[in-house]
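hey m, so remember when u said the tokens were messed up on ur end? i reran from scratch. heres the input so u can diff it against urs
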Amino acid sequence: MLKNVTASLPKVLALVALCACAMAQAQTAAPSRIGFVFTERLMTESKLAKTADAKIEAEFSKRQKAIKDMLSRLKSLSEKFDADNASLVEPERTKRYREVAELEKDVQRTQREFNEDLLQRKSEERANIAQKAYKLIELIAEQEHLDVVLQESAWSSPRIDITDKIIKLLDK
């Protein structure tokens, strides 16, 4: 129950902010202004994001190739073991089975480490982009006299979307 309440808290706060803006608008002559940013577009469409993705891909390509090589070696070793299994004597069968099992463990460990490192690097790059984007969002909000800038919604009007402006500034 508490998880549900805390999970919906940001949405409730956004709703409260919108209500407060509506009330302030009703009490004053100046209408409240709202902006909206699709953060996922910032992380995928900006040149900064594309450059970061290319950099990460280049950084991890050697490790990815090594994993593919390990997988092909495991496959061929496993197929050879399966084909020769019936004709092998027990000590040789045990030795080759352990060899295949050990290589399989190495492949799984290497893949897990690769995925963890890749995820960490992507998170670092996204955090860097987000930090720059948030500064630009504040700048645009001040320039356009926006009262609030939202990041998530079920739907938003294109007239309040400032994502393209942020992308253009990120790409400079």
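this time it looks ok to me. The domain at 33-171 is CATH 3.30.910.20 (Protein Binding, DinI Protein; Chain A). if urs says something different then somethings off w ur setup not the seq
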